[in-house]
Amino acid sequence: MVSNTRMRFLEVATRHFAENGFDGASIAAIARALGLTKQALIHHFGSKEKLYGEVLQQISDRLLSQIIQANVGADDPATRLEDLLLSLHEDRDGRADDTRLVLRELLDNKRRAERATNWYLKPYLDALTTLMRQVPGWETARDAEALAAVYQIIGAIYFFAISEPTLVRMFGERAYDRLETTYPARLRALIRACLRNPPAAPG
Amino acid sequence: MVSNTRMRFLEVATRHFAENGFDGASIAAIARALGLTKQALIHHFGSKEKLYGEVLQQISDRLLSQIIQANVGADDPATRLEDLLLSLHEDRDGRADDTRLVLRELLDNKRRAERATNWYLKPYLDALTTLMRQVPGWETARDAEALAAVYQIIGAIYFFAISEPTLVRMFGERAYDRLETTYPARLRALIRACLRNPPAAPG
DNA sequence: CACTCTACTTACCGATCGGTAAGTCGTCAA
DNA sequence: TTGACGACTTACCGATCGGTAAGTAGAGTG
Asked: Which residues of B140-177 are buried (b: 16+ CB within 10 A; e: fewer)?
């Protein structure tokens, strides 16, 4: 059985890393949020770096399982992918910390790349491009074409997702609500336009 | 005359903040990169926070001036905006640090929001939505509609821009080159699809 | 009862953080 | 010649960082 304390550590750590980044988060503060000392954290995870790795792994697992779930859904591949991408946008409140942390990891990667050994996002991107290639017209698309298309859409989704606090402050709560209301429709149009526009067949 | 040392400090600080974030960057390291001590930095800027503020202000100015330059270009509003957005993508190597720092600022904003007084990105976003509303069909679009459209596109651009190191590591240099080659064409298609699809006239 | 294991604790370490205080040194003006 | 000023320096501060060492308390096992 997996320790309950461990799980609670991972939960709190995800939030702290997401909000403050790897450097900004302190293991003492994470432990304090659970009423424990940082040495309890060290006892369970060995080091801050290893804790961070487990947090990323958990996020990676969540992302992938979301795709697998969506893949079971019936319908044709195009609407299936469209629904998945839109649910990525709609679920952003529940996954806010995950999204922030993924973005932070992309930003920190330049510095961390030397030490990094595991590419937590690769299975996720691979799964998305696989789904993309099931859409009519995209079957023969090169890797680069499918990845580019996927990347633009999740870029639009992720960028919006992390901007909420800033947009609310900039334009006010009501303006943000209106923006939030119009966004899904525009996003759907964007996805459809993208799917309807496959690359020319190679060769 | 503005001190040369000051400018060099701002340059180096931009790079350090972009790569390591506010917490990850240290004023001692920034000063050391110039062969000076951190007290020299404090002498010029007063505090780390103020240095960071000036770095953001400089980026904000650069972003805005890029729009102003593009706005002078002739042509019709649609291609003018299209060219501007594409140049945003094409120039990403030269502005890599700026982009990374803007993303970091969005991520940190939740924590910094209490203290923050200046919304560095607002003039930039306002300028972009203004350009958007000069495009035929968009003249009467609500703020939220124009902002949503702009946001999706710069989301796709920014997300890709910060991903280079990760993508290269994940898929290899050659695969990234192919991705980089196909991206602008897909981006152009995305922008056109977006501009050609204005919201229904309000009221 | 003795032993071990897990889950923590207190006490401490050296390093580094941002920032202050008090100079030093060269330039330029009166 | 003096005095002020800008551009730095060395020396230092308390706080906090991640991590180590050496325990302690409680449960389970023989």
From this structure: ebbebbbbbbbbbbbbbbbbbbbbbbbbbbbbeeebbe
Q: Within 10 Å of residue A118's Cβ, how many Cβ atoms? A: 10
Q: What is the pLDDT of residues B165-186, one digit of tens each?
A: 999 999 999 999 999 999 999 9
Please tell me if residue A151 touches chain B, with a CB cutoff of 8 Å. yes
* 3-class secondary structure per residue, B42-53: HHHHCCHHHHHH
Q: What is the pLDDT of residue B202?
A: 62
Interchain CB contact of B46 with A (< 8 Å): no
- Average pLDDT of the residues of chain B: 92
Q: B 105-134 residues with CB below 8 A of A?
A: 105-111, 113, 116, 119, 121-122, 125
At residue A119, the pLDDT reads: 85
Predicted TM-score of the model (pTM): 0.94
Winning range, highest mean pLDDT, from A68-82, A109-123, A159-173: A159-173
Minimal-distance CA residue of chain A relative to B111 = A19
- Measuring CA to CA, how many Å separate B68 from each of B97, B131, B188, B192? 21, 10, 21, 21
Q: How distant is C1' of D1 from CA of B43, in Å?
A: 29
In this structure, the protein residues whose CB atom falls closer than 7 angstroms to any atom of nucleic acid strand D are A 25-29, 38-39, 42, 47-49; B 3, 5, 31, 35-37, 39-40, 43-44
